[in-house]
């Protein structure tokens, strides 16, 4: 949400602001960032299909003078960060100011029959086949033209319920609901079809681009469905027609990141119980589970302790199905230094490789790094290597004497044992790093390349920096 902070900044001010956020992500040892690239059926990128988002210049359709998404991808990759484009598939925004200020070339201005107003918000109708085709086309335009690492949906599918109002999709139900006895089942199928279309086309086009979703944290309560979670809150299956379980079972998502924005012991939806429920849902499916962490709650009454967030990770990290966390949002992480320090000390004290995306290949699609050179002076090492056109990122390892011998010996098992996270200095898209952590124990460096699927290539030469 960086561009929502201060709309109307100059191009250089926007770039400087984004650079600072990315630098902070690196300092926190994060490995991925999510940029809200399509907030309200408009674009934080150069699009022929939808107008520029108003967050860039203060006015929808206002050209910022550069391509923010292109710049963000480039800068993230230089820093060794994955860049995921975060999209809202159906949301048009608030009636005021979004709907009342649509540009003439906005898709809803051109197709007013797509629009449904609900409460104080506006949506395009998920039951309209033209809408599904349009949304899928917009997504694939970004996947095809930008070197993003992932495509991400949040929790806005059919809108959250508004008391006393029904979602106005009578015309589409009459026209397209004939195969269903219940409108609710038809609505869920509309969303299911979008998820299948998007995932299928991404797989055909760029299978290394991961597709995931961060749904509302409750699928169904066990009081409604015996297989639901031990919770008593809003149900995304019934209230938003988002059948996350089907997406997991069908494999139409690569990962799920449920918004478990609740504390441990919360009666309506306990964090620990909800984590276990979601872990059970993904087990054996091949769908990765990341926990959506509500960093925006840091400093609130229930999350006032500096270790509140860290303690939640203490629990979920013990569950082998939980492979990571996604924080909403980095703004709140930046504003709660003590909590972040606790998190870094307990869980993020080292950089981490980005998660690997299944390529269907037996071996990485990148070779060993060539031209490695390293020198140490006064505790600072300068490490450089030759660029590899097949590399997406590089991983730089600092090795003690025993690890140098293991890696140089050429045995793959010993090399793998030596190239651990504890020895990882940095993940980068550049062809050189400065390591200020070299000390008397430092004996050498090795660099590996990661391919588009983030699979790590073979070990090449080891540079010995002992005198």
Query: Which strand order do you get reading across the main beta sheet?
Result: 1-2-6-7-8-9-10
Q: Helix fraction?
A: 25-40%
DSSP summary: helix tally: 15
Characterize the largest beta sheet: strand count, sense, and whether it forms a barrel. 7 strands, parallel
Mean pLDDT: 95
> What is the alpha-carbon Rg in Å?
24 Å
β-strand number: 17
SSE-based structural type: alpha/beta
The low-confidence runs, each spanning 5 or more residues with pLDDT under 50, are: none
> What percent strand?
15-25%
* Approximate shape: globular
Distance between the termini: 48 Å
Index terms:
globular; 467 residues; 15 helices; four-stranded antiparallel sheet; 17 strands; 31% helix; alpha/beta; seven-stranded parallel sheet
Detailed description of the structure:
The chain contains 15 helices and 17 strands. The radius of gyration is 24 Å and the shape is globular. The relative contact order is 0.09. The protein is about 30% helix and about 20% strand. It is α/β, with parallel strands linked by helices. The mean pLDDT is about 95.
């Amino acid at each position: 949400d960086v561009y929502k902070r201060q709309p109307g900044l100059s191009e250089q001010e926007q770039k400087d602001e984004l650079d600072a956020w990315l630098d902070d992500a690196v300092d926190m040892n994060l490995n991925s960032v999510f940029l809200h690239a399509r907030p309200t059926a408009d674009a934080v990128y150069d699009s022929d299909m939808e107008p520029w988002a108003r967050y860039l210049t203060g006015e929808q359709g206002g050209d910022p003078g550069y391509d923010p998404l292109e710049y963000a991808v480039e800068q993230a990759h230089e820093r060794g960060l994955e860049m995921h484009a975060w999209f809202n598939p159906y949301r048009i925004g608030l009636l005021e100011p979004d709907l009342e200020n649509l540009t003439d070339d906005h898709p809803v201005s051109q197709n007013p029959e797509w629009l449904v107003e609900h409460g104080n918000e506006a949506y395009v109708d998920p039951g309209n086949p033209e809408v599904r085709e349009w949304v899928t086309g917009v997504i694939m335009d970004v996947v095809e033209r930008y070197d993003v690492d992932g495509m991400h949906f949040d929790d806005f599918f059919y809108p959250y319920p508004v008391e006393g109002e029904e979602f106005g999709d009578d015309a589409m139900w009459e026209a397209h609901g004939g195969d269903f006895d219940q409108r609710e089942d038809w609505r869920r199928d509309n969303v299911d079809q979008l998820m299948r279309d998007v995932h299928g086309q991404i797989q055909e086009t760029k299978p290394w681009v991961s597709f995931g979703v961060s749904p509302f944290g409750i699928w169904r309560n066990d009081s409604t469905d015996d297989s639901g979670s031990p919770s008593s809150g809003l149900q995304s299956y019934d209230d938003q027609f988002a059948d996350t379980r089907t997406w997991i079972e069908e494999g139409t998502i690569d990962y799920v990141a449920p918004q478990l924005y609740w504390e441990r012991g919360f009666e309506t939806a306990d964090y620990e119980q909800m984590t276990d429920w979601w872990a059970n849902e993904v087990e054996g499916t091949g769908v990765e589970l990341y926990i959506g962490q509500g960093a925006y709650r840091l400093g609130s009454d229930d999350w006032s302790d500096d270790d509140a967030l860290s303690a939640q990770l203490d629990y979920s990290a013990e569950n082998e199905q939980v492979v990571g966390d996604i924080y909403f949002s980095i703004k709140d992480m930046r504003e709660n230094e003590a909590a972040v320090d606790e998190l870094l000390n307990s869980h993020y004290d080292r950089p981490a490789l980005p998660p690997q995306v299944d390529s269907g290949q037996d071996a990485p699609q990148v070779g060993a790094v060539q031209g490695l050179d390293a020198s140490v002076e006064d505790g600072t090492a300068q490490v450089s290597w030759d660029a590899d056109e097949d590399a997406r990122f590089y991983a730089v390892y600092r090795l003690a004497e025993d690890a140098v011998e293991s890696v140089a010996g050429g045995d793959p098992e010993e090399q793998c044992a030596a190239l651990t996270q504890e020895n990882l200095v940095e993940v980068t898209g550049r062809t050189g790093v400065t390591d200020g952590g070299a000390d008397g124990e430092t004996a050498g460096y090795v660099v590996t390349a990661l391919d588009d699927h983030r699979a790590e290539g073979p070990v090449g030469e080891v540079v010995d920096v002992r005198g």
